[in-house]
Design a protein that fits this description.
globular, 0% strand, mainly alpha
Length: 103
């Protein structure tokens, strides 16, 4: 029961932050890199804690993007690739401990 409440609160907070970020982007505001990374880190923490899966958060992002912009992320990227605020970052290099990476 407690896990479900935490999951719901987390999902609502992610949705709120995504709406704010997308709304600011739609208004033409430059989104600071630190804000994007903070949101990405927040979402990664939720995945790590088992509150949501990456697929669930990607679906939430898609739904909110459609809500704010009236188009899918793919459509938006195709129309204006330079405006897209999220980039897909490959974190696999960090799966190996740092002491092994530095060899």
């Amino acid at each position: 029961m407690q896990q479900e409440i935490q999951q719901e609160r987390f999902t609502e907070e992610v949705a709120r932050r995504l709406r704010q970020l997308f709304a600011n982007s739609k208004l033409g505001m430059q989104i600071p890199v630190v804000e994007r990374h903070r949101l990405e880190g927040f979402m990664q923490a939720g995945i790590y804690l088992g509150l949501n899966s990456k697929a669930e958060l990607a679906q939430l992002m898609e739904e909110i993007h459609i809500e704010v912009f009236g188009k899918t992320i793919a459509e938006h990227k195709a129309e204006a690739p330079h405006v897209w605020v999220f980039e897909e970052i490959d974190y696999r290099q960090f799966d190996t401990p740092a002491y092994e990476r530095s060899r």
